[in-house]
Amino acid sequence: MKAFTLASLSLLGAVTAQQVGKEQTENHPKLSWQTCTGTGGSSCQTKQASIVLDSNWRWVHVTSGYTNCYTDNTWNTTSCPDGATCAKNCAVDGADYSGTYGITTSGNALTLKFVTKGSYSTNIGSRTYLMESDTKYQLFNVIGKEFTFDVDVSKLPCGLNGALYFVEMPADGGINKGNNKAGAKYGTGYCDAQCPHDIKWIEGAANSEGWTPSENDKNAGSGKYGACCPEMDVWEANSVASAYTPHPCSKNGLTKCSGTECGDGDERYSGTCDKDGCDLNPYRMGNTDFYGPGATIDTTKKFTVVTQFIGSGTKLQEIKRFWVQNGKTYATPETTFSEIGGNSITDAWCEKQKTHFGDNNHFKQIGGLAKMGESLARGHVLVMSLWDDHAVNMLWLDSTYPTDADPSKPGIARGTCPTDSGKPEDVETNAPDSQVTFSNIKFGPIGSTFKAL
């Protein structure tokens, strides 16, 4: 469900490429995080790092000048007669993070603004990655570990998603793959379990073949190819609803897909990745007063999210969630459906949930937590993003979905947002000042990053 909206550059165009431009110096905003040992968050060491903007948002022009290689939602057929040639002809440039994209950092905090109006552009949303160095993404193996962060979603209304998640994309951004000379330094190499077709560059070539401009997004389109890889959604949320979801795939790492293997449309459950995943959304599990404004976890205020990946080696057995706010620790509440029970993700829990909700269990067919664990053990890149949904208005996260289903049927109600909410044209016009802040990231063995209070 990651139909990300790209930057809308009114003069320059919202574009990406593979060579390296020289018009804007690329300076990665600094962001610190911590690795922990011991217990209760008492022994944590700060790491000085940075974040980088995904290449899909960047200005790209011909290497010999300023002519756009992609403008609005169409390719320049002169500079891009085919994917390989396009990647040779076009240069991706550096980013003005705060001025153009509304991305700022301060110490251990990252803030992503929704709509940013610059001198030459109006930008919508963003996608960023945590860096280990100037040219390499930070890799995480979370098996047997816990990942903790603070989040402020108080300025995220219905229809928006402030997401923090892991994907098995290449640590170097796929540099030198095909004609990719930009690499992780310029945010290349993205993939996820939705096998997105709006990725403009895959494995060092333009995704221009069969490109179709979007009918409802003037800055986006879709090409013949998709970019698939396993994905662990640690956090997909706004102020109304939240969920965490493993999405295993049958193949390792980034896979350039086409046709049935992408799992598009009616072939959703024939693809190489589990697009539905096995989600745990407290509201969907019947706990309608746990998360939201004024709820047990009061989303008008900052809180801490702890995710534990229980297992060892390549074996993932269980994913548990704890919450900390106002000096008190909360476990995710037990589901109210007796046919399911439990409050954490296991293979058995997913089977019961899929059966009771009447959902296709592609999660099990792909390999469930075992396959997800194998992927996580190979190392994943941390993604932090803010986006609106041009496909189904984020209703799968925060409303009744499918919209024509009986909301009293188990699994249909996911949040309190109206079924006519979340339209991108509405949220971009009426909620441009929306933003999300992720901060205080900690990572270490289970029990090392926080103290239960």
Task: Characterize the structure shown.
This protein is mostly beta strands and 453 residues long. It has a single domain, classed as 1,4-Beta-D-Glucan Cellobiohydrolase I, Chain A (Distorted Sandwich), CATH 2.70.100. The chain is 11% helix and 33% strand. The protein is built from seven helices and 31 strands. It has a 16-stranded mixed β-sheet that branches. Strands 1-7-4 form a three-stranded mixed β-sheet. A two-stranded antiparallel sheet has the order 5-6. A hairpin with a 7-residue loop joins strand 19 and strand 20. The relative contact order is 0.20.
Keyphrases for this structure?
453 residues, mainly beta, globular, 1,4-Beta-D-Glucan Cellobiohydrolase I, Chain A, 7 helices, three-stranded mixed β-sheet
Helix content: 10-25%
The CATH architecture would be Distorted Sandwich
Average pLDDT, rounded to a whole number, is 94
Report the portion of residues in β strands: 25-35%
The CATH class label is Mainly Beta
Number of helices in the DSSP assignment:
7
Tally of domains? 1
Rg of Cα set: 21 Å
Q: Quick one: how many beta strands? A: 31
> For the terminal residues, how far apart are their CA atoms?
35 Å
CATH third-tier fold name: 1,4-Beta-D-Glucan Cellobiohydrolase I, Chain A
CATH superfamily: Glycoside hydrolase, family 7, domain
Form type = globular
Uncertain runs: 1-16
Biggest beta sheet summary = 16 strands, mixed
Q: Structural class of the secondary elements?
A: mainly beta
